[in-house]
Amino acid sequence: MDYAATILSRLPGVARRDHGVRKLVETLESYLPEDQVAKVLQAYEFGAVAHEGQTRKSGEPYITHPVAVAQELAEMHLDWQAICAAILHDVVEDTEASLEEITEKFGEDVALIVDGVSKLDQIQFRSRAEAQAESFRKMMLAMIEDIRVILVKLSDRLHNMQTLGAMPAAKKKRIARETIDIYAPIANRLGINSMKVQLEDLGFKHLHPFRYRVLENALKKSKGSQKQIVKRISDQLAKAMQEDGIEGEIIGREKHLYSIYRKMAEKKRVLSDVVDVYGFRIIVDDVSTCYQTLGLVHQLYKPMPGRFKDYIAIPRINGYQSLHTTLFGPKGLPLEVQIRTRHMDRVAESGVAAHWMYKADDRSDGTPQRRAREWLANLAELQRSGTSEEFLESVRVDLFPDKIYVFTPKGDIMPLPKRSTTVDFAYAVHTDIGDRTVAAKVNRQLVPLRTQLQNGQTVEIITTRGARPNPNWLTFVRTAKARTAIRQHMKNLRRFESVDLGKRLLDKSLKDLDSSLRKVGKVRMSEALDELGLNKSDELFEQIGLGERLAPLTARLLLGADTDDEEKAKSASLVIAGTEGMVVSYAKCCYPLPGDDVMGYLTAGRGIVIHRNNCGNLSNFRKQPEKWIAVSWEKSIERDFHCQIHCETRNRTGVLAEVAATIADSGSNIEQVEVVSRHEDISVLTFLLQVHDRIHLAKIIRNVRKMPSVIKVSRTIA
User: Average pLDDT for residues 466-486, to the nearest whole number?
Assistant: First the structure.
């Protein structure tokens, strides 16, 4: 019974036409159960209807392309989800179909693969530099959540290259260059040798058509004599293996045009030097037989010194395993022989896709994704017996990446750690750019600076002269460079502020003693610095500003006054404007506001901490009166201060929202709200607000008290 014909006959309209689907079904039914093949045909019907009326540049119906992509994956024995995704990979981009529809009809796995391929299609290759190409490959691999995404994309590219003839010459060359620089290396990294070879040869054909034709014609001319030599050597190898009781398959390897061209270019050799190397592959049943066969081959032909490589003990970075040896063949001809097991051969040809090939009969629970990860884990296990750390690093970076790759406005690719923000990007470009950052655009849209970046985005940083880093950036930046730069700037800023504050405090203390810094003079200041073991006056000012040295005692030292003589001290206060920054801070126990009676307390390492005079915590400070400092508010202060209030309310639905709305209507921003206690009938709410001054707070409290649901409102104080 013709299973494919039976199924096709049931499909409606356009889907009934055979666009290569008959061959696809025949391939699928060789390794998939009927219900899964039916799912694939359902996807074909959906895709055929969606692409109805669309054609390729060649004039063929568009559906022939996704079917051909699916056929390539079917020959690798991939699962039904990957085949369905291959058929549907263009429907979201090119038709009115949506991901939601695909999810509903074919499941999340299929939709995820389709979405992944669509995202990769949106990335445009912008630079031809080799370093950029490597970054681009990593970006692509970093973007995928399912290994099958890249397999579909590679198959898509392969069929596009096979049908590139209808494209304009310039576009051919661009696509061919992308294929050689990007897609062929990815296929190689994933160990899919058959696809890698095809992509390279097709890319070479369209990138350098004249060179391709010259090499192709030269190989055709030499094929006759080569066939005779290959047959003779194959017969000798087969006879020797039979006599030694070794069962295996001998394959004469064909030369690939791009590899020949690359060898000629890299090693500066003529065509005859490259072509006259004959390659053979011997496939046996197990690893021990590989080494037995190697000994037999070395007995038959003399090995070239230093030309033996054991990739079984130490696999290549893509998981490739085989024994390689170069020999002196008949009449001294160079002879390359590869010896591997059948399992190794499958992996060599299909790489990561081979996992599905030899798991096709496995009906155990577990997603193909997990199986692929197991496959990679097995490779890592194999690698432990060798010395190549490159393999492990390559798998970690490329397949399970901890980095993202974003574009600069000029199209350069910038690698960053995962969860990096726009600020991390700014500092990665240059420290000065990071320091002067005021805003950022991602894909031409303004975003908050804490926005975490995603693969493939274009990031633009907006700077302004005079801008400086915000200490809050340290709460969200990810890179060490950004953290170090911000901290260094804060350190320098803190020092500048502490020097300025210390100078003001010392001058105030000197004025209390009927003097000033100007009157003290340079000579006395130099003598005092020597007594204190300091080199510069700024060091003294900094210590005073940070609370590490008391200004009144230092003033008396400078004047030579008696430290016990306090009668001369006057009550002049230090004026604060609320903008002093890091060396003048405001206590969170009492939240002082302009208009409050306040005092300053010198704290070692922190400078001056401002408290309300009625703060409960001051009882501890009164034991050290020498650290008190009189402070007063400047008359006109333009900034907001934090303040905390407690609100006791009746416990009913919506009361929190009502209180919050009243506070907002009073012109205050609520930064934090917390239910600190809840009883059967009463709720106690705590709000952290931003207010201008004491008058503004009083207005907020009055408005909240008027609410029927509010029992009591009070300002927080320790």
Answer: 83
